[in-house]
Amino acid sequence: MLSTLRGIPAASGIAIGSCLLYDPTPPVIPQHQITLEAVPAERERLQQAIAASVQEVGNLRDQVQERLGKEAAAIFNAHLLMKRLLFLMPIY
To answer: What confidence tens digit (pLDDT) does each residue in 1-15 have?
Structure first.
């Protein structure tokens, strides 16, 4: 999508690139009810989602470590620790 934004420039010239528009309106999150019989399957879906996010964060950490070094990638280890702790917590 190509759009032109006009405003008061801070410097002369043009800028071409990505733009992120901030919308402070919180998203509407629909609520769903499930049957008691569906609970085990939903717990399994949650565990699979956590596992996928651990894998994704691990991949990001490895990419950052390759490009910027171990120190820059260290923040991802904290994220991984928190996600791995989710595996240990009982899900009610």
So the answer is: 667 777 777 788 777
